[in-house]
From TrEMBL:
GO cellular component: membrane; oxidoreductase complex
Keyword tags: 2Fe-2S, 4Fe-4S, Iron, Iron-sulfur, Metal-binding, Oxidoreductase, Repeat
GO molecular function, one term: NADH dehydrogenase activity
Ranges where the 4Fe-4S Mo/W bis-MGD-type domain occurs: 8-64
Source organism, top-level taxon: Bacteria
Keyword Isomerase included in the entry's annotation: no
Single GO BP term: formate metabolic process
UniProt name for this protein: Formate dehydrogenase subunit alpha
Family classification: In the C-terminal section; belongs to the prokaryotic molybdopterin-containing oxidoreductase family. Belongs to the complex I 75 kDa subunit family.
Entry keyword annotation includes Protease: no
Record's signal peptide: none
C-alpha cells in the first residue's frame, strides 16, 4: 500500500477464482489496483477471503498478457501482430472457407467458466446463430457435466439446493470427493465453524484431507475408499438405509415417484449391494460404512457437499444420481441444513452451464430439440436453429482426427493443458485448419492456434458471475481492457465479420436478452443486483424479489423426485502387475486449476511445482525419499514429478495436482470418461512409479 499509494476510490466486484464467489472491493488509484479488500456485505463471503482472491490478482497486468491480436498462416510460422479488424477478418474468412468446403458442422466453439454469463451467452449465440451449428461446449464438460445430468434426472434441475449459510443448520455434514479447505476455503471456514459447534462429519475421500484430522476439526468417519469405487460406497450406504428401516417413508410417499423408488429399494436391498459385499472392492470396512450411513440418515438435518472426486469418473453421473437417491430416501432435500450441494470449482462454472453452452441445451437447461423453446430463440435471434445436439469437446477431437472438424473458437479455456490424454488432444488440435484462441496468455492451446485474440481479465470486465449457490453477482470493470476491447466486444465483432451482426452497447443489454428468453432469469436485472447486492436463480415473478435461496421446497422442480438404480461398474483403470498403483488428482490452496493466473502471482512462492504424494510404504518399496524424482507411467503416457512421502495417502494410491504445464499431469490421465456426459475420468489412472534422476 505504501509503494502503490493510498487508494482514491473503490469498485465492488467478484473474485475470479473459485465457485464461492466472494465479493471484493478493488481499491484503486487511477487505473491501478492498490489492493483487494473482501467486501463485508458480500453474501457469499461476509467479509472473508482466501489468499487467492485477496492477493493473487497481479496476473491481470502481468508482462505475459497478450495485448496485440496476432495471426499466422501455419502453426509453424512466426506470429504476426495485426489490427483487431485484420485478426477478426482473418478468423472469419478461415471459418467461412472451412464451412464452405466441409459443411457448417465442421466448426465449433468452447466457452469457459472464466467468462461472465453475458460473454458465455454471446459465444453460444455466435456458434448457434452465426455458425449455424450446435457444436458448442464448455469447460464444465471436464468437471461438473455429470452434476448437470444426475441432478437434472433426479431433481429436475442442475444446481446446488442450498445457500452456503444453510450449513450453519446442518447436524451431519458429509463431504464426498472434495477438499474445500484448499479449493473453497471461505466456505470451508463456515463448514468448520459448524463442526466446531458440534455438527458431525463424514469424509468420503481416498486421501486423508485436511478436514479428516486438522488442528481445528476431526471427521467422525473417514471412508478412505479406493479411487473408482464411489458408486459401490453410495449404493452400500443406501443398502443400510433401506435394510435397517432408515427410509423417511412419509417424505418419500409425499415427494417422490413411487415406481422408481420401489425398484430402487428392491435393487439396493440385494445382498450383493451390502457394505460387506463391497468391502474388498472399496477398501472401506463394512462397520465404518454402516456407521456413516446410520449417522447420515439420523440427521436430523444432514447435508451433502461434493466435488470433482464425485464427477470426474467413468461413473460420475451414476454417483451424482446415487447421492440424490440417498438424500431423497432420507428426506434430506427441501429445508435448511440439508440438501445436495456440488462445490463448483470455478468462479462461473454454474453460470457457464446456465447460459446454454452445452451442445444439447439452450440457456436455462432447455433441450435444443424442444420446438417451442427453440422457436422463442429463433424469433429473437432471427435465424433458424438446428434441433440436433452438437459435438461435445471429446467428440470434437474425434471428429478432428477423422478430418470432419476443422475450426475452433476457444474462449478462455486451455484445452491442451486441462483436457486428459494430452497427446491425443495435441493430435486433434494439429489436425484443424483454424484455431482461434481468445485468452489472457499464450497458453498451451495457443501453440496450435492460427489467430490470437487478447482476452480481458475480470478486472477489465462488466457482467455477472453465478456462484455455487446460484447467486448472481456483478463483476464491475475497474480498469479498461488492456488490449482495447472486452471479450464481449470481440465476440460481437467476430459475429459481425461472419455476417451475423449483434447490437449491444453494454453487457447489461445482453442480460436483458437473457432474462427475456430464460424463465429462471426473468427477474434478473443489473438494477436489482445493484440494489440487493446479488440475486439467486430461479428469479422470476413467482419467487422472492431476490430469487430462490433454497430449491425444491415442498416439491422437486421435476415434480416427483425420481430414483434410478446405481449399478456399480468397475473402472477400466484397474491395477495390474504393470501399473500397480492408482493415481488420483486434486488442488492445493495457493494455486488454481491449470495455474495460468496463480502461477503469475506471488502465490508460487508457496507451491512452485506439482508433486506426487505417496504413502511411506509404497515409497520405501521404490527407494523413494522426500524430494526424490519419480517417473510416473500410465497406458496414456509418462511424466516426472518430485516426491512427497505422506501419510495423507493410503497404500496403493498416489496423488498429484495439475497446476503446472511442466509436470504434465494430463499426459498420464487417460481418455476414459463418464458414460453419460464424457466427463473425463481424471480421478482414476493406473500407474507405475519408479525412482528416476532429476530431469
Ligand atoms: Fe473466495 Fe474462492 Fe476467491 Fe478464495 S478463491 S477469495 S474462497 S471466491
Amino acid at each position: 500500500v505504501i509503494e502503490l499509494g493510498q487508494p482514491e476510490h473503490a469498485v465492488v466486484t467478484t473474485c475470479a477464482y473459485c465457485g464461492v464467489g466472494c465479493g471484493f472491493k478493488a481499491e484503486m488509484k487511477g487505473n491501478t489496483v492498490v489492493r483487494m479488500v473482501p467486501w463485508k456485505d458480500g453474501k457469499a463471503n461476509e467479509g472473508h477471503s482466501c489468499i487467492k482472491g485477496r492477493f493473487a490478482w497481479g496476473y491481470a497486468t502481468h508482462a505475459d498478457r497478450i495485448t496485440q491480436p496476432m495471426v499466422r498462416e501455419k502453426i509453424t510460422d512466426p506470429w504476426r501482430a495485426v489490427s483487431w479488424d485484420e485478426a477478426i477478418g482473418f478468423a472469419a474468412q478461415r471459418f467461412q472457407a472451412i464451412q464452405a468446403q466441409h459443411g457448417r458442422d465442421a466448426v465449433g466453439g468452447i466457452t469457459s467458466s472464466r467468462c461472465t454469463n453475458e460473454e458465455v451467452y454471446l459465444v453460444q449465440k455466435l456458434i448457434r446463430a452465426a455458425f449455424g451449428t450446435n457444436n458448442v461446449d464448455t469447460c464444465a464438460r471436464v468437471c461438473h457435466s455429470p452434476t448437470g445430468y444426475g441432478m437434472g434426472q433426479t431433481f429436475g434441475t442442475s444446481a446446488g439446493t442450498q445457500t452456503f449459510a444453510s450449513v450453519a443448520q446442518a447436524d451431519v455434514i458429509v463431504v464426498i470427493g472434495a477438499n474445500p479447505s484448499d479449493a473453497h476455503p471461505v466456505f470451508a471456514s463456515r463448514m468448520k465453524r459448524r463442526i466446531r459447534q458440534g455438527a458431525r462429519l463424514v469424509v468420503i475421500d481416498p486421501r486423508r484431507t485436511e478436514l479428516v484430522d486438522s488442528p481445528h476439526v476431526r471427521a467422525d468417519h473417514h471412508l478412505a475408499l479406493l479411487p473408482g469405487t464411489n458408486v459401490a460406497v453410495i449404493t452400500a450406504m443406501a443398502h443400510v438405509v433401506v435394510t435397517e428401516g432408515l427410509v423417511n417413508e412419509a417424505y418419500v410417499a409425499e415427494r417422490c415417484d413411487t415406481p422408481s423408488f420401489q425398484a430402487w429399494r428392491e435393487f439396493v436391498a440385494r445382498p450383493e449391494n451390502s457394505p460387506e459385499a463391497f468391502e474388498a472392492v472399496t477398501g472401506v470396512p463394512a462397520a465404518e460404512l454402516r456407521a456413516a450411513a446410520r449417522l447420515y440418515a439420523s440427521g436430523p438435518n444432514s447435508a451433502i457437499y461434493y466435488g470433482l472426486g464425485v464427477t470426474e469418473h467413468a461413473q460420475g453421473s451414476t454417483m451424482v444420481i446415487g447421492i440424490c437417491n440417498l438424500a431423497m430416501a432420507c428426506g434430506m432435500v427441501g429445508r435448511e441444513g440439508v440438501g445436495v450441494n456440488p462445490l463448483r470449482g470455478q468462479n462461473n462454472v454454474q453460470g457457464s452451464c446456465d447460459m446454454g453452452s452445452f451442445p444439447h441445451e439452450l440457456p436455462g437447461y432447455r433441450h435444443i430439440s424442444d420446438a417451442a423453446v427453440r422457436g422463442s430463440f429463433e424469433a429473437a435471434w432471427g435465424v433458424s436453429l438446428s434441433a440436433e445436439p452438437g459435438l461435445r469437446i471429446p467428440n470434437m477431437f474425434e471428429a478432428a482426427l477423422a478430418g470432419q472438424f476443422k475450426g475452433l473458437y476457444c474462449v478462455g479455456e486451455d484445452i491442451a493443458q486441462s483436457d486428459p490424454n494430452t497427446q491425443h488432444v495435441a493430435a486433434a488440435l494439429s489436425a484443424m485448419d483454424c484455431i482461434v484462441v481468445q485468452d489472457l496468455f499464450l497458453n498451451e492451446t495457443a501453440k496450435f492456434a492460427h489467430v490470437l485474440l487478447p482476452g480481458s481479465s475480470f478486472l477489465e470486465k462488466d457482467g455477472t458471475f453465478t456462484n455455487a449457490e446460484r447467486r448472481i453477482s456483478r463483476v464491475r470493470q475497474v480498469m479498461p481492457p488492456l488490449a482495447g476491447l472486452g471479450d464481449w466486444e470481440v465476440t460481437m465483432k467476430l459475429s459481425q465479420a461472419l455476417g451475423y451482426p449483434m447490437h449491444y452497447a453494454h453487457p447489461e443489454q445482453i442480460m436483458q436478452e437473457i432474462a427475456a428468453l430464460t424463465p429462471s432469469f426473468a427477474g434478473v436485472s443489473y438494477a436489482k443486483i445493484e440494489r440487493l447486492g446479488s440475486v439467486q436463480w430461479p428469479c422470476n415473478d413467482s419467487t422472492d424479489e431476490a430469487g430462490t435461496a433454497m430449491m425444491h421446497v415442498g416439491g422437486f422442480v421435476r415434480g416427483k423426485g425420481r430414483f434410478f438404480n446405481t449399478q456399480y461398474v468397475p473402472s477400466d483403470e484397474r491395477v495390474n502387475a504393470r501399473f500397480p498403483l492408482l493415481l488420483t488428482t486434486g488442488r492445493i490452496l495457493s494455486q488454481y486449476n491449470v495455474g495460468a493466473q496463480t502461477r503469475r502471482t506471488a502465490n508460487s512462492q508457496w507451491h512452485a511445482e506439482d508433486v506426487l504424494e505417496i504413502h511411506p510404504h509404497d515409497a520405501q518399496e521404490r527407494g523413494l525419499l522426500d524430494g526424490d524424482w519419480a517417473g510416473i507411467s500410465s497406458r496414456a503416457g509418462q511424466t516426472v514429478l518430485r516426491v512427497v512421502v505422506s501419510e495423507r495417502m493410503q497404500p496403493g494410491v498416489v496423488w498429484t495436482t495439475f497446476h503446472f504445464p511442466e509436470s504434465g499431469a494430463n499426459v498420464i490421465t487417460t481418455d476414459s470418461s463418464d458414460w453419460a456426459t464424457n466427463c473425463p475420468e481424471y480421478k482414476v489412472t493406473a500407474v507405475q512409479v519408479a525412482k528416476v534422476m532429476a530431469p
